[in-house]
Every structure is written in structure tokens, then in C-alpha cells.
Task: inverse folding
């Protein structure tokens, strides 16, 4: 949390909870496009590694693979408590993505949260029937962030306040 605040982002929502299956299901799209995107990434990774994806998933259909991965994500995210937060600031989504690093910790830039706190990768996750444990989720777009915020937080759980450094970051000179 300190990394986000030190970068100039403002935390306007924060809570710890044990997510329900319904909450996690709603966090990820239930569309053919999303499943194909997620499954396609696994197919590409398996090809890079020279591993037959059919041996693991019983299929090379991106949508079917994406559906299996979503189940793994749901199982993982409902297995314990999570800390959910909402951050605001200039290009907040882009800056959060920069600070957390690549989804695959093994490809994340050294110094990023995922690089510093995880050594997991796609191969190990798939070998053990689970998603990559990369410590932190970050919205991929402003639209996705808005949807996820409304899924995880009510309006009365979000706070508006002024940080001491806002005048420096947002003052018009």
C-alpha cells in the first residue's frame, strides 16, 4: 500500500474480506472473448515452453482453457481473505499496472510488486491446476476498474479527502 501512496496515488477505499464465489465470478467477464483471451495466453506460453497444451487441458480450444483457468481463479480467490482497495490519481490504472508489474511474476520488472513478492509462473500454476499466484490483481483499463470497484465496494465505502501532496501533483502552474 505504501508503494502506491509514495507514487502519488490516493487510497480512497480499503477493506479486508473473504470473497464469495458470486463476487469473484462477477469480477471477471463471462464472455467468449474473455475466455479466448485468457486461454490464448496459456496456449502461447505452452508453445514458448515447447509443451503440448492438450496433454494438460485435454484440448487446445482457447475458450475451454479460459473457462478452466477462470475456475482456478475462483477457487484461489475464495480460499482465503483478500485486501481490496481503490486508488485514485493521474492515470491511476496505468500507474498501478506499472507498479505491480507483468501478470507473470517471472516476466515482471525487477522492483515491481509481482517481481519482488512472487516467483510463480504459468508453467508451475498449470502443473498444479491453479492460476499464477502473483500477489496482487490490478484492473487492466478504466472501464474494467469502474466495473470492479462497483462489484467490490458500495458508495459509502469510498472516501474523498485531500492528500498533502495533491497541491504539488495537481496544481496548475
Result:
Amino acid at each position: 500500500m505504501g508503494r502506491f501512496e509514495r507514487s502519488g496515488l490516493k487510497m480512497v477505499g480499503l477493506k479486508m474480506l473473504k470473497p464469495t464465489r458470486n463476487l469473484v465470478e462477477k469480477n471477471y467477464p463471462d464472455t467468449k472473448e474473455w475466455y479466448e483471451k485468457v486461454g490464448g495466453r496459456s496456449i502461447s506460453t505452452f508453445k514458448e515452453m515447447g509443451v503440448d497444451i492438450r496433454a494438460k487441458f485435454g484440448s487446445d480450444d482457447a475458450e475451454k482453457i479460459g473457462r478452466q483457468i477462470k475456475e482456478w481463479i475462483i477457487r484461489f480467490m475464495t480460499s482465503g481473505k483478500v485486501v481490496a482497495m481503490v486508488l485514485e490519481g493521474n492515470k491511476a490504472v496505468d500507474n498501478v499496472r506499472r507498479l505491480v508489474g507483468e501478470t507473470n511474476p517471472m516476466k515482471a520488472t525487477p522492483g515491481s510488486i509481482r517481481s519482488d513478492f512472487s516467483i510463480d509462473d504459468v508453467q508451475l500454476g498449470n502443473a498444479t491446476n491453479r492460476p499464477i499466484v502473483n500477489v496482487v490483481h490490478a484492473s487492466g483499463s478504466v472501464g474494467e476498474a469502474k466495473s470492479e470497484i462497483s462489484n467490490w465496494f458500495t458508495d459509502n465505502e469510498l472516501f474523498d479527502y485531500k492528500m498533502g501532496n495533491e497541491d504539488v501533483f495537481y496544481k496548475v502552474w
Q: What stands out?
A: The longest strand covers residues 10-17. Residues 97 and 156 are 26 Å apart (CA to CA). The mean pLDDT is 92. The chain has ten helices and two strands.
